[in-house]
């Protein structure tokens, strides 16, 4: 199965990425650039060089999680994939990563180019207005991020737009319940 680079980032060429390619990528690709390592595993930036043009993805290696929290790491990875799939309609017009697949020990999402907000230090009021609109669009899709206080989760893309990463704690809501409204208000 092929991936393509479109206006919304990396996307499967047809339908879902599929467990076959996910397993292939997770087992055959060498370790990528380490972005983060903690109790819940390793997060790496991986280059899929067999794709034309080469594509960058983020692989969350759940096999590297400590054995006593591996169940939680898998649950959080599935939660991130679910939230990103819920936002798939927005991803073509915004700067959000895309869910590319999940297997028992790995999770893939598209790479989102940019610098963390605390490094880029955006000064333009348009950045913050765009961030507010992005958040409102996410809430209209029924998704709350729940980890926006961490500045590294906010990116400043090369064209100065806001981007969001790290959807592990994100909530997907079918209706605007009290819980949804409380989580949305805190953001």
Report on the structure:
The protein is an alpha+beta fold and 187 residues long. It folds into two domains: 3-110, Phosphorylase Kinase, domain 1 (2-Layer Sandwich); 115-186, Transferase(Phosphotransferase) domain 1 (Transferase(Phosphotransferase), domain 1). It is built from five helices and twelve strands. The protein has a five-stranded antiparallel sheet, sandwiched between helices. Strands 8-10-11 form a three-stranded antiparallel sheet.
Which key terms come to mind for this protein?
30% helix, 5 helices, 187 residues, five-stranded antiparallel β-sheet, Phosphorylase Kinase, domain 1, three-stranded antiparallel β-sheet, alpha+beta, Transferase(Phosphotransferase), domain 1, 2 domains
């Amino acid at each position: 199965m092929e991936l393509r680079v479109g206006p919304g980032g990396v996307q499967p060429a047809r339908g879902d990425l599929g467990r076959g390619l996910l397993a292939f990528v997770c087992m055959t690709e060498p370790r990528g650039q380490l972005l983060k390592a903690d109790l819940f595993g390793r997060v790496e930036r991986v280059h899929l060089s067999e794709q034309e043009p080469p594509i960058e993805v983020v692989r969350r290696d759940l096999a590297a999680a400590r054995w006593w929290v591996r169940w939680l790491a898998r649950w959080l990875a599935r939660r991130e994939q679910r939230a990103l799939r819920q936002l798939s309609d927005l991803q073509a017009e915004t700067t959000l990563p895309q869910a590319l697949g999940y297997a028992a020990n790995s999770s893939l999402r598209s790479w989102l180019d940019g610098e963390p907000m605390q490094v880029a230090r955006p000064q333009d009021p348009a950045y913050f207005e765009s961030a507010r609109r992005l958040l409102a669009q996410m809430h209209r899709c029924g998704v709350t991020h729940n980890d926006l206080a961490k500045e590294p989760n906010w990116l400043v893309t090369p064209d100065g737009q806001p981007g969001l990463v790290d959807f592990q704690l994100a909530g997907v809501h079918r209706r605007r319940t009290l819980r949804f409204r409380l989580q949305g208000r805190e953001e």
